[in-house]
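Render this sequence as a predicted structure.
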Amino acid sequence: MSNVLSGIRVLDFGRYIAGPYCATVLADLGAEVIRIEKIDGSEDRYLTPLTEDQTGDGALFLQIGQNKQGMTLNPMKPEGREIVQRLVKTADVVVANLPIETLEAMGLDYDSLKAVKEDIILTHASVFGDEGPYKNRVGFDGLGQAMSGAMYMSGDNGEPRKLYGPWVDFTTAMMGVVGTMAALKHRDQTGEGQLVGTSLFGSAVLISSVTLMEQAMLNINRVGTANRGQNAGPADTFKTKDGWVLVQSIGLPLFERWTKLIGEDHWLTDPRFTTDQDRGDNNHILSERMSEWCLERTTKDAIAEMDAVRLPCGPVMTPQETLDDPQLAAMGLLKNVPYPGFEDGVPVTELPIKMSKTDTKLKHRAPTLGEHTDDIMNSLGYSAAEIADLKSKRVV
């Protein structure tokens, strides 16, 4: 199995998800990634602690730190800026999702990097990009959800609802991967590096694009209906005797299967349900009927009957039920990884891309704080005495 990015060095100055997970995927594909963080550890290292005393390295870092080396560094000190420049000379890609003013202060803006290494690639994620009235604003995943229309459309009864999982952050990270891979290909062809820009707002707008397009063309002013679909039906979550199920009927063939399921073919000749959009506009009626059907059954029985007619469905599961689900084990998505302080290891999610000729598997655990600082500094030409002196000054 090959590592397609073998020989590529990436400097990860990112924080939280949009930058760091971009670097993680590059590491999964074989790049050598150096995670660079604050002397006392960056904030994302400690998010969602996994110990009962709520201290130590957290779940987010153990996920996004996999396959990386780790060093500590303060680039705001003169000696730190020198180390940054030495690192950049050895690198192919710099990943950062810090504010542009911070990048400039650290010597990590594109012009500063290019002055050190002409063909460097800077992959920079921000909240709103580098143009427009909001370009200097800071924010997290939720801001993208709130300002793209997605949070409004996910709400119910006029109350907006943010999705629990940070899908905007992870989408932005994957956009960064695509842009970085394209930039590496461009460099192979031309010898030129470049600036790759992504944004939380841009990623969220992409996910909301169909709704935004409909609004722009038809001025329809939809409002949120929570889990109930607005462009097909029945599409909703339904309570069963012992839980909840999600059902998604999209397209006439699936609608026909639904009528077969409940034994009522009269829905097929009702003009209110002729097209997907008709069914979406009247989905409250379909949801009411499907709700009655589900309430008469357990989750297991309801899914078995829907599976029998090939109607897309699934249980709404708790995190523990997901961990216990046999499909998760069959796909091998979680790998139990040893980590200091966790005797039995930690279940980390591998890259959910399987390739027949390319190795995308998790290769080693996330680094402890500053674990590889000495080795990396040695490779840059620093002696043991110089490293000790820089540590005493809290430069590394």
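Summary. Residues 46 and 53 are 12 Å apart (CA to CA). The mean pLDDT is 95.
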